[in-house]
Structure formats: structure tokens, C-alpha cells
Amino acid sequence: MALTLCDVGPRDGLQNEPDALAPAVRAELINKLAAAGLPRIEAVSFVRDDRIPQMAGAEEVVAEIERRDGVEYAGLVLNEQGFERLRATGLDRVNVTLGATDTFNRRNGNASLVEATARVERILAEADRPTTATISVAFGCPFEGEVDPGVVVELAGRLEADELGLADTIGVATPSAVRSLVKRTLALGKPVGFHGHNTRNTGYANALAALEAGATVLDASIGGLGGCPYAPRATGNIATEDLVYLLEGEGIETGVDLDALIHVSQWLETLLGRQLEGQVYRAGVSAVASP
User: Fold this and answer.
1) 82: exposed, middle or buried (Cβ count in 10 Å: 0-12, 13-18, 19+)
2) Whole-structure pTM over 0.90, yes or no?
3) Fold assignment, 4-283
4) Active site residue 228
């Protein structure tokens, strides 16, 4: 099965920025990413404006997207209210998420683990388009510490989604742990994706480990933007352009225009008024020196 790269910058990236961008600007970012060849983009999340104001106006963002053939546009939901909002849009995929621990669910979604699981099961049962169920803090929780992989696999086995995602929300995983959990989750018979943060500089090694173990979806964020408002010290995602550079260098075709991605990060740097976490957009794509 071919690799799918999903850029989560418009959602997971921007939600942690101090200032909210206008819906038209967020749609422009999505359009630039689509033009660069990203096969999937997580465009918005349908959450309460007062909880995450950076994600306000999701419907306006979706309405201003210039749809491209071959690009799948996804939205994130935490509950039934968010799902009903998404269902009224033309988005192609619903990503529903819950945490692997009780405390994280209470902080992130105001529900216990049991309640969050039941909520996700109801949404998946009603879904009228392809679904991804992502388990956050699958490798470690900022409130409860280490997470038992067996608990994650058992939880994943309950979710009737088309695709399962494993999220290293606070960037504590190492390659061996990622490799093991991806393999165990694949045994459930569904495609598995990996969502990594580079908090402890292991994100790119973890992405390769996930791929080697059989993951077919990798999340990344343009410029390395990101973090979770409800996960203390959870810094940015792995940068999309850095991941593409790595994968292409390893002989793995991505179908993404790296130069175009670099231009998007440069544009974002100017827009946000600060240096981004990604490395490749600053260093450039090195040429092989002549002997």
C-alpha cells in the first residue's frame, strides 16, 4: 500500500499559535499545501471557539478551499456536535480522536476514557465518509506518565474506523516503542498511521520506524508548527518538508514538491513573524558536490 503524507499544519499546527489567523488565510495555507502535492490535509477542527479560538470559523475555512483532484481534505472532531458540523461540509474524511488515558480525556475533551470511547464509537457508527480514529498520548501521557501498549491496542480494537492513528502527542516515544506498537496495532487488520511530535528530537526516527513497521500514513506539519493546548510542553510536530527530505533521500517516493513546501514555510515565517522549528526550509536542499 502506498504511503500517504498528511499535513496537519492548518489544524494541529496553527491551534498552538498565540494569535488566530483569519479563515481566509488558513484556507490560503491549505491551498498552498495542496498545490505542493500533499495527498491529504487536515484542514480544520470543529471545536468550541472559546476553547481553541485559533480554530474558530471552521466552516468559513472549508468554504474557501480551492479543491484539487487527488487531495483528501480531513477535519478533526472530538464529539457529536463537532461531527454534525463536519457532516454539513464537503470534507472528505473525519478524524475522530480520544486519549489513551482517563486524565487526558478529561482535560482535552471533558469526558472520562469510558465516555470518550463511547462517544467515538457512536460517531464512527454514524459516519458517512472515510474515518480515521486517532489515539492520542499513545506512548505517554503528560498527566499519567507511561502508557501500557496493551491498553492502546485493546482500545484500538474497539474502534470501527477505516484507519487507526497512533499519536505521540508529547514526543516521548523512541523508535523501538513505535515499531512495536505499530506492528501490534496492524494485527487488528486495518491501516495504521503515526502522528509524531519532535519534542525530544526523536520524531523523524520514529516516523521511519513506523514506516518500517508497516504504517501507511504519516502526519507532519509544515514548518514544524504545532503542539497541544492541553498537553504541557508538547512542542511542535515533525516538519513536513524535513520529513519529505528524509523520505526522498531514503528512496521513498512521496509525490510532494519539496521546493514548493520550502516556499510555504518561508511564507509562513513572514506571516507569523518568527522563525519556525523546521530545518530544511532554512538550510535548503543540499546539492551533491562534484568529485
Assistant:
1) buried
2) yes
3) TIM Barrel (3.20.20)
4) yes
